[in-house]
Amino acid sequence: MNRVGLKKAEILIFGHRKIMHESIYPTPYLPVPQPRTGPMRLLLYGGFLGGLLITVAGLWVGIVQNENIWTAWFAGKFAAWQGMGIGLFIGTVFALGMWYGGRYIEGFAAIRRKIAQALELESIYGWHAIALSLIAAVPEEIFFRGAMQPTLGLILTALIFGVLHAMTRLYFIYAALAGVGLGLLANWHGSLWMPMAAHFAVNCWSLMLLARWSRAENQKAPTEVLML
User: What pairs with residue 119 in β-bridges?
Assistant: First the structure.
């Protein structure tokens, strides 16, 4: 049997998982695994990008528009703790509703698979989810709702927010609508406390649920390979 025939026989007998580790030649039968980003690298990248967003927003509001940054971003119509509490509640309800409702929509399942292909979800635990959500929610809300929305308006800012988050067309729609909701929360409270808390809750719950799902899928994988 030639080498190609041997590869085919091995695949039929042992399944893809074993061959992926032994084969030195890519074949049409074997997917080539792509490197994924782990939580520590995400924290590094997110911290750098978050710092950049806050810097740009601060320069725009504080220097170009000559406004008091604290008043513009954090002086709400009612107490900060009330805004954060409402935001956390709204974000939690939204995240859980989208997760359990989205299980029955193929487009959201495809988004989940794309995220799993890009990130080491199984390596994310509670403190990772909290830290990653903070370094995403706070800078993004400062940049989009604190600097961009007062200049460009609610709808255009939400569309830009959607475009910059769009890994699929459905995710663009989801992110743009979320941008509208976060913008409305900012207008309602008159500060960024409420949208920051809601954004944090959505990200944190989503990361924890994705990580739990990924670990469960990994536990099922050996059984599925044996059934090939």
Answer: 37
Q: What pTM did the predictor assign?
A: 0.81
Say if residue 98 is in the same domain as residue 170.
yes
Residues 112 and 187 grouped into a single domain: yes
Q: Which residues contact 105 (CB under 8 A, 6 or more apart)?
A: none
Helix (H) or strand (E) holding 215: helix 193-226
Average pLDDT per 10 consecutive residues for the chain, totaling 228 residues: 45 42 44 77 96 97 92 90 97 95 87 92 96 98 97 97 94 96 96 98 97 88 44
Whether residues 107 and 144 share a domain: the answer is yes
- Give the integer Cα–Cα distance in Å for 142 and 139: 5
Distance between CA atoms of residues 181 and 195, nearest Å: 8
Domain membership of residue 13 as a residue range: 1-33
109 and 160 in a common domain: yes
Q: Domain total for the chain?
A: 2
CB 77 within 8 A of CB 190: yes
**pLDDT at residue 177, as a whole number:** 97
Q: Is 104 helix (H, G, I), strand (E, B) or coil?
A: coil
Please give the pLDDT value at position 78. 84
